[in-house]
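hey all, quick one before standup. I had two proteins in the batch that finished overnight and I want to keep them in one place so we stop losing track of which output belongs to which input. First protein below, input sequence then structure tokens straight from the run.
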Amino acid sequence: MTQEKLKQVTSPRGRTTPGQEAAGTVRVIYGVHTLDVALAGRSVLSVREALIQPLNISPEAVALVNGREVESSHLLAPGELLEFVRYSGEKGQEAGPTAIGRDRAAMEQRYGPLGSGRPDLTINGRTYDLYALLQILGLDFEDIKPVDAQVLGENLYALRYFDPEERCIVAYDFDAEFRRVGEAFVHIQEWMGEEYFEFNWGVWCPWTM
């Protein structure tokens, strides 16, 4: 995915500042919510328990520190980035049969490089652009951004989109009747690499810890 296309679905953010690190500040992210709070020395589990209701953290969410999955006993250090993410599952539902987690290679083997697909699909004699596909599939949430579409085989299609709430690229498989066949999620960091930590996902604080 080109940097230009990447910036169409993301926006820049700054790292934790040296002053914040000195104050024991840790950045916590879940979905669209970002907190900068003094959490150094606390465990991931204690932070999850404290924020599970204010941020509505899913029980299925995995804890990442600086992009790496950690145990709940991990003690946070100043300047670290703690993120709770869900790698698979429908928006608001549990995982579908083709959920493949963080495996960028597996997604691109099946669907091609990100952004390499089609801008529209012709199904049953009618052409739908990406936004029309989102709408007819019931995926037209305000924050969803389509990426591309593919013909996978006879009576089998796919639509890929970026879900900023989960920070995942989603590949949604469906048939000619627009019935869901399967779904795969891969975290956007798999494409962004270290640049993921430079993007601004928005700041929202529900309370003071």
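OK second protein, same deal, sequence then tokens:
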Amino acid sequence: MRYMLLIYQEETTNTRSEAEREQSMASHWAVIDETSKLGILQGVSPLQPTSTATTIRMKEGKKVVLDGPFAETKEQLGGYYILECKDLDEAIGWANKLPLSCSGGQGSIEIRPLGTLPERKGPTAEREYAGAHNG
């Protein structure tokens, strides 16, 4: 089962020393290296600050593009891991190896199983594109 480990943190609080930041990154690199060796790492990435975000919402029946996040929260999504784990206990074990204060104050890690897309019915976009350009 694939699990996404969503790393939440406070963006505005950054009172950690350089040594603390380096120790945090070393913890991340250790998990990245170990999960890569085991072949269970499917994806990992930090996210840019929420000030760089763009949100699309419905307003009066039309899609509207907004700068930044829509909701004000204490913790923001700062990054993620996608791991292929045998069960939730294994995913929790990996999450416990990650620091909870990546770029500032205390944070949290949400573990969520990834679902699967339903089987696609009808032509794929690739076939539609090819058919439209074959004259």
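Flagging for whoever picks this up: The chain is about 30% helix and 30% strand. The mean pLDDT is 84.
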